[in-house]
Amino acid sequence: MIADETPVLANSLWTATAPPQPPFPRLSGPVETEVAIVGGGVTGLSAALHLAERGIAAVVLEAQQPGWGASGRNGGQLNPGLKHDPDAVERRFGPDMAARMLALSGNAPALTVDLARRHGIACDAVTSGWIQPAHDAASLATLGARARQWQARGVPLRMLSQQEISTLIGTPVYIGGLLDPRGANVHPLALTQGLAAAAARQGAAIHGGSAVLSIRRDGAGHLLRTADGQVRARRVLICTNAQTDGLIVPLARTLVPVRSVQVATAPLPDALRAAILPGRQAVSDSRRVMVYYRMDAAGRLILGGRGDYSDRVTARLMQNLRRIGRGMFPQLADTPFDHAWGGLVAMTADHYPHLSPHGDGILSATGYNGRGLALGVAMGRVLADWASGTPLAALEFPVTPPRPIPLHALRKPAVRAAVALFRLRDRLGI
Ligand SMILES: Cc1cc2nc3c(=O)[nH]c(=O)nc-3n(C[C@H](O)[C@H](O)[C@H](O)COP(=O)(O)OP(=O)(O)OC[C@H]3O[C@@H](n4cnc5c(N)ncnc54)[C@H](O)[C@@H]3O)c2cc1C
């Protein structure tokens, strides 16, 4: 179970199966360091590990325990790229910055798998590829354009015929699709806790139960206060994503947190494992309300989707996911779904993540739009680059001022309306 979580979101497969990890201690008393990191998910822990590898002192302050946020609850898909296709990234950011962003995001799964391998993190990492299937001619055309744009940049994406996709996934429901060989998948909590343990071994200080209550300027640096301690640091990295609170104004108003949920079957018998996703690729279905799924190392089918805020609607979404799973794979009719859990993803108005300064010496990386497992690890490295002296303009991702979303207070009804509309359009096929 995920501790300190609402019951409907707490029954996590990952907490039930991650290697045991003793809790990290609370911060107590005053500490001096080079870099203070707020948030112990993949972004903050990757930053800490990359800094520690360079011999730079870092302190991570996590309100709960490392992996308590989305990093320890997600679908475990290491997806390459950004939400936008390469040509759109280039139009918006120009060829030089776009090339850096595409390299960073495209290589993010490989970076993550390599980091896990170098630090001996046992997290069932497999680079088996990422499938984006198509339901209809329009989505197939979108995938074709995506393939051509990456191919033009030297990345060997490959379109799949109806026959190929039905063999790879084990269902006849799709008319074709796209295979991105860079995609990988992992046990996300084992990865996140492994990053924390590796960063600690390399010399970073990691603290659980240490919510940062305030940050204020202090001479040439900053002073961060927790209930029992304080950290004085030259630079501060804010890595709180969808869990962002009022610590740094106006960061929370640049993000729309949305619940995302997962359901997982019991381990499947060998005959079903041979028929459903035998190559263990991750799949993101191209419907407007995305459904994504994959097989884990123990042969459990894990499906995810997103939606609402209330527990009642969340429970209904979980039931929908089970129904979708059994619809695609009728062989699962009698298979129990053992786990159902969820968490928050952080959406942004332009669907890009944002790297934003908050005065001198504070930088945040947030807003992964539900695709931040590999990208968060990569952005953690970018934050570490900045904290170890790389100028803002030379980073692999653009730095933009925090821009609050207009009418942010109306986010909940707006999300509900958008999701309801997309579901209707999916049903009607328009
Ligand atoms: C159900 C679900 C499924 C998902 N599936 C996928 C997937 O398959 N692939 C993918 O790429 N992405 C997926 N995502 C998104 C992905 O998990 C996130 O984008 C990513 O983990 C963000 O990492 P992070 O380190 O930035 O934030 P988080 O992991 O959310 O960590 C932020 C941390 O900050 C801490 N914090 C907040 N405020 C404070 C404070 N004041 N002081 C101290 N600590 C604080 C929180 O406790 C939290 O632990 C999914 C997300 C969810 C919820």
Automatic annotation (TrEMBL):
Which positions make up the signal peptide? none
Q: Output one GO MF annotation.
A: oxidoreductase activity
Stored InterPro entries:
FAD-dep_OxRdtase, FAD/NAD-bd_sf
Coiled-coil residue spans: none
Q: Does the keyword Oxidoreductase apply?
A: yes
Q: Mind telling me which GO cellular component terms the entry cites?
A: cytoplasm
Q: What keywords appear on the UniProt entry?
A: Oxidoreductase
- Top-level taxon in the UniProt lineage: Bacteria
| Keyword Oxidoreductase among record annotations | yes
Q: Which residues cross the membrane?
A: none
The record ties this protein, via Pfam families, to: DAO
Which Gene3D superfamilies is this protein grouped with?
Answer: D-Amino Acid Oxidase, subunit A, domain 2, FAD/NAD(P)-binding domain
The FAD dependent oxidoreductase domain is annotated at 35-386
Q: Which PANTHER family match?
A: FAD DEPENDENT OXIDOREDUCTASE DOMAIN-CONTAINING PROTEIN, SARCOSINE DEHYDROGENASE-RELATED
Q: What is this protein called?
A: FAD-dependent oxidoreductase
